[in-house]
């Protein structure tokens, strides 16, 4: 595929423009790098109509054929990794090596998901009746993706949605639409017309989608605040929703870790993708016995990390993706300054073009500070001292969020015991952020509704249907 600067939406198997256009900015230098269609109600109606038209044919396509097409889509991503990688860095900001990891992950997600099948349960098979429960597709799914991992998080939805037999309308974030539109060009060559439609637009487009009566389900990944709006807007037509929302993941570091060995791993748990990961470590609770040495090791490692334009050789952390998020992170830093919290590193605005915030680490701010209680979604990490396990669990669990979390310790059984008491959808022991297409992933509490991944995630794109067949009915000869 040619990674030229022409961007079109995919509606009903055709690459189409919209009357209005939307600028896309490279966050490393604030330059406009492309224009994409800015769809409105008319384009949305066309996309929904195309998906509705394609639905009966796709739902009736044998699952093995649907899987073969997902597999081909994955291969077409793999065949274009280099172009996607460069484009992802330009629109999102992440360094090339991370961009490559995301693109490979997107292909892998599509491929690996094909291992799953829709189960059929025999509830009763007696002389009197046969009762089975099967899972049928819902219809048309609206998929709304965020800007932190535009490609892989879109595939979290496309893989189960299409495998289950639904047709879809996918909308990327207005900040990161480019890779998704190039992916649409690949999909055009592989999928029947209308099975996957891709539309792009500004802030108005998401609410138009969630309110549209032509969708049977909305699968949304984004902030908790927007998730509430999505759920309210989906309610009048009782659309199914899967909501993958924000988090404030805690890492609990036990006193028996090897401080020197663990510091680098803990650093990246918080700062990969510039902290813009829903399951990034956003508050780090460190046992008092190792607080000072680990604090110092983290800061020493952080000083070696290169922040810069993701397209430059050696860059390890890029800019924040967009101006609104950049201002939000600066506001949290200002709040910490205003309250006199101690900065170990960073805290100053980088006076260069681009949305750069230096790596910032705070020394034991109070539990009720904004930087501990809120989701920062940027390169600012509070280190918090604890001395009692019950107390730290209470603090970790006293949050409206419940997305992920991690426990780190040499005594793996003890760490695993603690992990089971963290109220989050995923808890890791001695690693973090490892996700699998074959494992359910979702948030507890206000971090989400439903899951993606695994059989549980696949079934969220279906309705259970029970079929009951009477045997030897009285009126049958
Ligand atoms: P966001 O909520 O601002 O936007 C997400 C998407 O929703 C975008 O495509 C946006 O255009 C669209 N949107 C905005 N307003 C809408 C509305 N009223 N109705 C429907 N759609 C609307 O989120 P973001 O800033 O792009 O992403 C960052 C957030 O996403 C963070 O909170 C992060 O934790 C969360 N996130 C969660 C997961 C997860 O799997 N749980 C994964 C990644 C990111």
TrEMBL record:
Gene Ontology molecular function: any one: aldehyde dehydrogenase (NAD+) activity
Keyword Transit peptide: no
InterPro entries in alphabetical order: Ald_DH/histidinol_DH, Ald_DH_C, Ald_DH_CS_CYS, Ald_DH_CS_GLU, Ald_DH_N, Aldehyde_DH_dom, LUC3-like
Domain Aldehyde dehydrogenase, residue spans: 20-466
Protein EC: 1.2.1.3
Keywords: Oxidoreductase
Catalytic residues, chain numbering: 244
Recorded family membership: Belongs to the aldehyde dehydrogenase family.
Name the UniProt record assigns to this protein: Aldehyde dehydrogenase (NAD+)
Record organism: Novosphingobium aromaticivorans (strain ATCC 700278 / DSM 12444 / CCUG 56034 / CIP 105152 / NBRC 16084 / F199)
Taxonomic path: Bacteria, Pseudomonadati, Pseudomonadota, Alphaproteobacteria, Sphingomonadales
